Amino acid sequence: GAVVSQHPSRVICKSGTSVKIECRSLDFQATTMFWYRQFPKQSLMLMATSNEGSKATYEQGVEKDKFLINHASLTLSTLTVTSAHPEDSSFYICSARLGQGLNYGYTFGSGTRLTVV
Amino acid sequence: AQSVTQLDSQVPVFEEAPVELRCNYSSSVSVYLFWYVQYPNQGLQLLLKYLSGSTLVKGINGFEAEFNKSQTSFHLRKPSVHISDTAEYFCAVNLQAGTALIFGKGTTLSVSS
Fold this sequence. Notes:
The structure holds two protein chains of two kinds.
Chain A: E1 4-7, E2 10-13, E3 19-25, E4 32-38, E5 44-51, E6 57-58, E7 67-73, E8 76-81, E9 90-100, E10 103-108, E11 112-116
Parallel strand pairs in A: 2-11
Antiparallel strand pairs in A: 1-3, 3-8, 4-5, 4-9, 5-6, 7-8, 9-10, 9-11
Chain B: E1 3-5, E2 10-14, E3 19-21, E4 24-26, E5 32-38, E6 44-50, E7 56-58, E8 64-68, E9 73-78, E10 87-94, E11 102-103, E12 107-112
Parallel strand pairs in B: 2-12
Antiparallel strand pairs in B: 1-4, 3-9, 5-6, 5-10, 7-8, 8-9, 10-11, 10-12
């Protein structure tokens, strides 16, 4: 089946540094990618939607200058957390849309646990 | 605004017992409904989805769900659970095909022997 490979799975960084999370679609072309954030014991909150070759659409309350999303190719989307702070510590998950029309679905990356110290 | 409500945050059951995880959605238009399972520190795995057609949907690992438009529900069921079913379960919906999923808060299913 369609697989999205997400790396790194875990990362610890110091406050003020930037961290890049990558999501690659291994055997399909991901024209649309979604980025979610999940706090412990909570649901997934949509951060942004990115379409290949265009600027990402951010959800209300998500700082686009802090969470930089790049979707420059059909197989790679990246999320860069800039000037990270401890409150950015969270579990980040990417998701790609599969299929077209009413025959569609989603596949998810395995997530990245970010800890900012 | 559309929302998804998972009525139970935690559901403890014994092994081989039946289980139902409840999900209600609020919407006045057609919706597309999904159930996902998440194991600790992992991504989400699709259990089943309803896009159209038969309202009784069968998924993986013996799970099934029934779309009930009049009650705006999409409850997940399994007739006999295993220890390995212990995980977090999320109901999700989107209004338009292919748009971002909106997730419920999740239900922790704990299966004990």
